Amino acid sequence: MLTVETRHAIHPDHAKGMDTAELRSHFVGEGLFRDGEIRLIYTHYDRFTLGGAVPAGAELTLDKVEETKTATFLERREMAIVNIGETGSVSAAGETYPMDKGDVLYLGKGSGAVTFAGNGRFYIVSAPAHKELPAKLITLADAKKVQMGSVETSNKRTIYQFVHPLVMESCQLVLGYTRLEDGSVWNTMPPHVHDRRMEAYLYFGMAPTSRVMHLMGEPTETRHLFIGNEEAAISPTWSVHAGAGIGDYTFIWAMAGDNVDYTDMEFIQPEDLR
Questions:
Q1: pLDDT (tens digit per residue) in 84-124
Q2: Alpha-carbon gap, residue 8 to 15, rounded angstroms
Q3: Average pLDDT of the residues in 206-228
C-alpha cells in the first residue's frame, strides 16, 4: 500500500501567524512507519520527498508515484534509504542489498522500481537528480565520523556522514545521522540556517514517552515542535533547526538544494535567538 501526502512551501511571514496545529500540519511528519505500507511526504522544498517503508516480513515495492508524473519514481530522481529497524533487504536494478540496522543505501537516477523486504524499517529520502550515479551500500564502518560539541555545553555528539562528498558522489542529496553522548541533550547548538538547501530531521531510537523539543522558525521568530520517536521535522531554507531531547535519541539529517557542501551554513549564536 502506497500513501503520498503533498506539503506546499510556506513563506516565513505565513509561519509567524501559525498556531501549534498549523505548524505541525506543515512541518512535522507523523505516522511514517506502518506495517505493510509505504508512506511518503512529497514536499515543494526542492521537491524533496521523505517517508517510510515497513514490509513487516513480506515485500513492498515502490514504483510509480503519481505526484512526479514519471514512469517510475526514480526516473529523474536519486534516493537514500536508512534501515532503522531489524535486518532486511532492498532490491533495485537487478541487485539485492542486505541491510542491517544503521546501514544506508544510495540509489541513483534511473534505478527503477525499489523493493523492500524483511523486518527492516526503512527511512526514505529522495530528490531530483541530473545524472546517473552507481548504487552504493554504506555501512557504519564506511561512514566518516566527526566528533563535535562538549559535555559542558550538553551537546557532545558523533556525526556519521554517509551520502556525503567525503564518502561518495551524489547529485544533490546529503545524508547522515547524529548520535548524542550520554548526558548530552542538544543535537545542534548553536543552530544554523542555510538558504541554499532545505533539510529534514528524522528522530528515532527514543522511548515511547520521550520527546525532542525541536526549534524551527527564523532566528528572531523561533517556534518549537515537540516530536516523538520516528517522527520527522521538515526545515525550510529560512528556518533554524536544532533540538533538545529527553533520554537517548539519534536523528537522521538529510538535505537537498544547490550544493552538497556540508559546511555551507550560517550559525546563529544563542544570544541572537528570539
A1: 999 999 999 999 999 999 999 999 999 999 999 999 999 99
A2: 12
A3: 97
Rounded to the nearest 5 percent, the helix, strand and coil shares of the chain are 5, 45, 50
The 8 Å CB, 24+ separation contacts for 97-102 are 97/135, 97/137, 99/137, 100/139, 102/139, 102/140
Print burial letters for 204-233: b (CB count within 10 Å at least 16), e (below 16): bbbeeebbbebbbbbbebbbebebbbbbbb
As a three-state string, the secondary structure of 97-138 is: EEECCCCEEEECCCCCCEEEEECCCEEEEEEECCCCCCCEEE
Q: What are phi and psi of 68, to 5 degrees?
A: -90, -15
Query: Which of 36, 41, 38 has its CA nearest to residue 24?
Result: 41
Question: What is the CATH classification number for the domain harbouring 162?
Answer: 2.60.120.10
Domain total of the chain: 1
Q: Which domain holds residue 158?
A: 2-272
Cis peptide before 190 (omega within 30 of 0): yes
User: CA 82 to CA 102: how far, in whole Å?
Assistant: 6
Closest CA relative to residue 222, chosen from 197, 244, 252 = 244
Are the C-beta atoms of residues 122 and 53 closer than 8 Å to each other?
yes
* Cα distance between residue 136 and residue 273, in whole Å: 40
Instruction: Give the count of beta carbons closer than 10 Å to the beta carbon of residue 173.
Output: 24
Task: Please count the other Cβ atoms lying within 10 Å of the Cβ belonging to residue 258.
Answer: 13
CA distance 198 to 41: 14
Longest dimension (CA), the chain: 53
